[in-house]
Amino acid sequence: MEYGVHSTRYTRLSDEQLYSMYRETAYSQLKEEEKLELIQETVNRDAMERGEIGSPEVRFIDLPVNESGNSIDGVININRDMAVYGVQNYEYKGHVIHHNIDDYNIQTLNTAIHENIHCFQAQIIDGTIDTDDMKMRSEYQANDFTCSPVTLYGSTQLGCQYLVGESPMGYYMYYFQPTERDAYLGAEQKTVEILNQLTEKYGKEFSFEQYTKSVETTGFQIREQEAIKLFNNPNFKMDLSQVLQNQYFGTDKSVDPRTETMVKAEMIVSYNNLEQDFSMNKEEHIMSFDPTPVSLEEYNQSLRDPVNDNTISEDEAVNETAQMSENYLMAVENFQDLSTGDESMDDGGLDADGIEDGGIGL
Hints:
By secondary structure, the chain is α+β, with helices and mostly antiparallel strands. The chain is built from 14 helices and eight strands.
């Protein structure tokens, strides 16, 4: 059904009554279909508050352990194991290991809000929502799943405007690119606001305390201070966004040179994911992008591992990222040759020669 009107059994509840059902004592007693409708109603109201045209459809699906959810084409997919059963299932040497998520009720709430913010952003980008906030629209347009030519170390290569977080310090570029920055911060702020209201009325609960601890140790403000220190740039967030806008719109506004180099390198490395998807789907002449997940802490940690490696200095990280970019040049050239040599590609393919609106359209 995607965007539209998604009626639920909870339509007549007040916001206070609705959010009270996220208390662990209440949420744990709900059946799967009741949990699904609770989250759908939460998204319905969040979408209305943000001015979205219609509401995304919420689904529970089986996702990898490192994905709590994703959103694409007006559909929000949420990890069933997390949202329904409160567990993560790992397979290790033929054995399935179950890990309980102590605050799964609140993580599910946070994931739903996070993904709906991405749906809101998608409507800003495609013009469904007409906004007077030109700064926000420009930031989001320059951070979509499109590509642009990136000049780095004397070579011009294709780079992705959305940063996956593959380079040594890529986790922070992934986290603080405009679309993820606003989704992480917006979802965290609204979740904390709801928890404060519930705590004031019902008192503390274990899941509330666990979520609060996670915010205090790995929340937005903590990550921001880490990024500022790591990049030695108090304007890191603004510069990251400006580099993407310079690339997309062809502008040349001044930014910190070191940050610019790192972002450009990450754009090229991130493009590797797009090129791999293209290669896998070439027979069907389809260009696809996997939905970008909202990752659980284990996935986040895996992205941060290179950054936390004390054996890698900041200069070494820059050099390693540059080397990754240089190594990827050959793959990009092969991809360009493949694209231009296949005249049967339809409009769903990547046009490596035509640049539209500052980016290469997908």
